[in-house]
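Homework help board

Subject: predicted structure for assignment chain

Our instructor gave us this sequence and asked us to write out the predicted structure in token form, then describe one feature. I got the tokens but I'm not sure how to describe them. Can anyone check?
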Amino acid sequence: MATSTYLSNPLVTVNAVDMTDQCSSANLSRVIEALESTSFGKTARVYTAGLENSTLTLTMYNSFAASETYATLAALVGTSTTVKIKPTSAATSATNPESTLTGCYLETLPIVNAALGALDTIDITFTGGVYSVAVA
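My token output:
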């Protein structure tokens, strides 16, 4: 069985700002909500595609310096923006596709998540928007 292994080091862009150096985890899930379309007489449930509701969850190191985490995200709370992620910083290609959520929504921005002896990290989630993927 053929397998592909790579060291996870994605390129993350939020609102056209490269946030790669502030991210330690990224999880992009494409979701198309299931709508039940089962009719009388069926013996099993039947579903059809509903609205898209994809999410991108990022774990980020919290920094309050200019052009870093807080400065980039604070103005985006309660608004729609564009986020992009691809497996590596190499050129976009069929083996390094760039996924984009256009018009996704940032509902919550944790301000401080501190613990003694630990780096301050926050988890943020962008929801909704239109998913697209580029291979060139």
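Reply (TA_rk): Your tokens look well-formed. For the description, you could write something like this. The CA atoms of residues 81 and 103 lie 5 Å apart. That's the kind of observation they're looking for.
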